[in-house]
């Protein structure tokens, strides 16, 4: 097994303990993952406000890049949170347009908030737009079909 010495801690570690870095000769970062994490924690503690501003500006200037990242996250781990984030990024990128009315009952945005409903979290862009009460009803029906107890009900 090949090894590499960390520039920070001096330990001789297996190559899988180093993150990739294309521009280096061996294709790996000079710091091991543990030292790299510690470096990033310290850097963030000192520069958190600037880093947050930079991230916010980058996301505003590159909405399609953020959308791509969110869709990849859904492919790796399809869950409600990742699907929600992907839809949010798609709206900011202009890929999805949030309507003003619910397709379930026809109420408009001033009556209830309009939300994206997923039938399948592996398809984050495949949504229907429902008001909050209709969305809750659809989720309760899904839970019954899956053999789970609906939310808010005691046994």
Task: Give a structural overview.
With 155 residues, the chain is α+β, with helices and mostly antiparallel strands. It folds into two domains: 44 residues, no CATH class; 84 residues, no CATH class. The protein has four helices and six strands. Strands 1-2 form a two-stranded antiparallel ribbon. Strands 3-4 form a two-stranded antiparallel sheet. A hairpin with a 6-residue loop joins β1 and β2. α2 runs antiparallel to α3. The longest helix has 29 residues. It is elongated, with a radius of gyration of 22 Å. The termini are far apart. The mean pLDDT is 91.
Write a compact overview of the structure shown.
This protein is an alpha+beta fold. It has four helices and six strands.
Topology of this protein?
Elements: E1 3-5, E2 12-14, E3 18-20, E4 28-32, H1 33-61, H2 63-76, H3 80-93, E5 114-118, E6 127-131, H4 132-145
Antiparallel strand pairs: 1-2, 3-4, 5-6
Unreliable segments of 5+ consecutive residues: none
How much helical structure, as a percent, in the residues?
Answer: 40-55%
Distance between the termini: 56 Å
What spatial order of strands do you see in the largest sheet?
1-2
The run of helices and strands is EEEEHHHEEH
Structural class: alpha+beta
Q: What is the averaged pLDDT score?
A: 91
């Amino acid at each position: 097994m090949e090894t590499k010495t960390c520039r920070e801690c001096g330990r001789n570690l297996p190559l899988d303990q180093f993150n990739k870095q294309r521009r280096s000769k061996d294709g790996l970062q000079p710091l091991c993952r543990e030292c790299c994490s510690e470096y990033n924690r310290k850097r963030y503690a000192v520069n958190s406000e600037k880093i947050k501003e930079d991230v916010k500006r980058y996301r505003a200037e590159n909405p399609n890049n953020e959308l791509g990242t969110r869709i990849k996250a859904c492919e790796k781990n399809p869950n409600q949170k990742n699907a929600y984030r992907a839809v949010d990024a798609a709206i900011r990128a202009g890929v999805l347009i949030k309507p003003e009315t619910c397709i379930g009952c026809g109420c408009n945005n001033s009556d209830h908030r309009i939300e994206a409903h997923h039938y399948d979290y592996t398809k984050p862009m495949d949504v229907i737009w429902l008001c909050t009460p209709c969305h809750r009803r659809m989720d309760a029906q899904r839970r019954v079909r899956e053999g789970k107890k609906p939310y808010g009900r005691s046994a």
